[in-house]
Every structure is written in C-alpha cells, then in structure tokens.
Amino acid sequence: MAKGVKPRVKVPKSASAGEVVTLKTLISHKMESGQRKDGDGNLIPRSIINRFTCELNGKMVIDVTLEPAISTNPYLEFDARVDEGGEFKFTWYDDDGSVYEESKPIAVS
Amino acid sequence: MKKFHGIAALVAASFTGAAIATADENAELVINGDIEIVTKTAAPAHLSDALDEVMSGWRFRSDQTQSMQMDDFDNPGMLGAENGAEIWATADGTEGKSCADCHGAPEEMAGVKAVYPKWNEEAGEVRTLQMQVNDCRENRMGAEPWGYDKSDAIDVEALLASVSRGMPVNVAIDGPAQEAWEKGKEIYYTRFGQLELSCANCHEDNYGNMIRADHLSQGQINGFPTYRLKNTKLNGAHSRFKGCIRDTRAETFSPGSPEFVALELYVASRGNGLSVEGPSVRN
C-alpha cells in the first residue's frame, strides 16, 4: 500500500429532489508515472490510482479511468442529479491492488 | 474585404486568448466564504518612494489558479497544513514532547506567522519561523532539527500560516532588527548573476508585465509557503529566492543562510499590511 494515501470528499448534506449537486473528491497519492528514474538510473515502478467510481444507492454516477499523466493528489469534481436521498459511495483503485473507499449520506428535502 | 474580416477575427481570437492567460487584478479573495484576505493595500511607509500600492501574488494569477485558493478543499497546500497538524500533535525527541504540549492547539498560534522574521533577544539574531521551530525542537524537545524548507518544516510552517490567514503582515523593521533589514534591502537592490538582475528589476520596475511566458508579480511573500502547480508541492520563501537568483544565472545563497534570512525580513516588510495568505496556490 502506497504511503500517505487519504481520500477526501465534499458532498452537500441535503438537496431538493431532482437537484443537480456538485461533488468534489481528492485523494492524496503520489501518482508515480512509471517514467521516472531514481538516482541510480533504475526505473521507478508505476504506482497510480487507475480507476475511480462514484455510486449513489448502488447506481453508477461516474466511472473514470486514470492514466499515468495525471499529476499527484488527483482531484475530481463532477455533478450528479439526486432524485432520492441515500448514500454516495466513492471508490479509488490503486495499481497495487489497494481499494480506498469513502461514503457520504445525502438527504432529500 | 474578406481579408479584413480575417484579420478582425484573428484580433478577436487573440483578445480572448489574452483574457484567459492574464489574471483578474481586481478580483477579491475570500477563503471558504469566510476569511477575507487583503490582497491590495497602500504600500508601507518605507516603500513610499518605490510603490503606491502593494499587491499579493494572488492577483497576478489566472482565474483558475485564483479559485483554487478560495476553498480549502480545492487548495492542495492544505494537505501540507493537515500533515503539519499531525506533526504538531505528535511527540518527538528525547523529552517526549510535542509542539501541542507547550503551545496547545495550532489555533493558539494565530498571529505568529504575521510577525516573522523577528528579532530574538536571547539569541541576538533575527529568526525566521522555521529557525524558531528548530530551536524548539533542539532545545525543548531534544529532537533533530529539520532541514531548511524541507517537507516537515514546510508543512508545520504551512499550518502556522493557515491559522493566521486574514491577519495583516506586520514585521518589525526598526530597533535591533534594523541591521538585518538594511542588509536585506541591499540584497534586494543588488544586481546578481550573468543577467545582472536585481529583485527590484522584475518585481518593482516591471510587475504586471510579462517576462516571456511569466506574469511578473510584486514578489510578495505574504502567501508563503506556496503550493506551486509546476512542482506540485509546498515551497518555502527561501527556496523561491534561490530559484529566482538561479534564474539570473548567479551562484545562489542557501535556504536558511543569514543572507536569505535578511532578505526574507526585507521582502516580508514590503508586504506589511497585506494579509497572511499561506498556504497559497500559485503556478
């Protein structure tokens, strides 16, 4: 597991039915591209977050493939339409097989 | 006529391009919709011959970069401050003490960043915040001092800056600090390197102009430590000085050297009246 990885999300606490809300996510991760060499000239192996998904009550909101050119601490901001209250589930998939999860409830008024 | 239209379209296109590339120098900075930051104010008295107004580097950045600093969630520099808060609460060294054991919560230190670099009577020298932190580590905690502008040092500096945001920079330049201040001023106006450039040539005579692709700011350091998009990490003021002097093709001073301590005091005093803004976001 890569060091210092910490997911963060920002979700509004409530929304009106059918409202489009903005979600912000950030995961601290070094996103080592696999192109760089260390001081001795050896290739530093690639270690990135390669996939990110967001689901609302089990229904996919967004499914992103991330590539090595994406810089450190990837920040993703996107919109989602909320028809009913429930829980947003965010998942990050690491090259090393680790899976980081975070979830946040949202109420519909 | 057709040719004329072509030129008009080209002119229109280049204006649009310029609007994206250059900054909105009249924007106002409010962080988290709460902390109001003074990014433009009357120049301090000692600068009255040189400048009428002092402006934070934030005003010289593009809209996108500006907006990253308006919400802590969007500001990658806050990751450093967060790490700094962890270090703050963690015991280290032979005494088994953390920063928090003596100083309490980081918020207790609000206002400290605003007055550094500062004269230390006991030591008989002007000290930067990082020097003061290292003095604590060595003499009160029995811990190893951190390298100047290295990650742990800069993260704690970012934490201390973040709790002082919105407070006016107010470093003392008279009394015992005056000697260092004069030395810093001399460095500021001395031309260095093969390009024979002083700090003032760019940041006093030409701020607002482009130096090739860079939009020159006034070189204020009220926003330090600064998260730079170009190297995706927090940068200290001394490292920035080093980069600037290197760009004049000169041999630079080292971060933490007496020359840079004096220069930091002088440059900080040029921003007296601007708000503490660190950790800021710049390109």
Automatic annotation (TrEMBL), chain A:
Stretches that traverse the bilayer: none
Domain of life: Bacteria
InterPro entries noted in UniProt: Ig-like_fold (IPR013783), Ig_E-set (IPR014756), SoxZ (IPR030995), SoxZ_dom (IPR014880)
Pfam family name, one: SoxZ
SUPFAM superfamilies per the UniProt record, alphabetical: E set domains
Protein name, entry field: Thiosulfate oxidation carrier complex protein SoxZ
Domain Sulphur oxidation protein SoxZ: 10-103
From TrEMBL, chain B:
Subcellular location(s) of the protein: Periplasm
Superkingdom to which the source organism belongs: Bacteria
SUPFAM superfamilies named among the record's database cross-references: Cytochrome c
Principal EC category: transferase
Start and end residues of each Cytochrome c domain: 79-232
Protein name: SoxAX cytochrome complex subunit A
Record-linked Pfam families: SoxA-TsdA_cyt-c (PF21342)
Gene that produces this protein: soxA
EC number(s) given by UniProt: 2.8.5.2
Catalyzed reactions per annotation: L-cysteinyl-[SoxY protein] + thiosulfate + 2 Fe(III)-[cytochrome c] = S-sulfosulfanyl-L-cysteinyl-[SoxY protein] + 2 Fe(II)-[cytochrome c] + 2 H(+); S-sulfanyl-L-cysteinyl-[SoxY protein] + thiosulfate + 2 Fe(III)-[cytochrome c] = S-(2-sulfodisulfanyl)-L-cysteinyl-[SoxY protein] + 2 Fe(II)-[cytochrome c] + 2 H(+)
Signal peptide: 1-23
Keyword tags: Electron transport, Heme, Iron, Metal-binding, Periplasm, Signal, Transferase, Transport
Family to which the UniProt record says this protein belongs: Belongs to the SoxA family.
Subunit structure: Heterodimer of SoxA and SoxX.
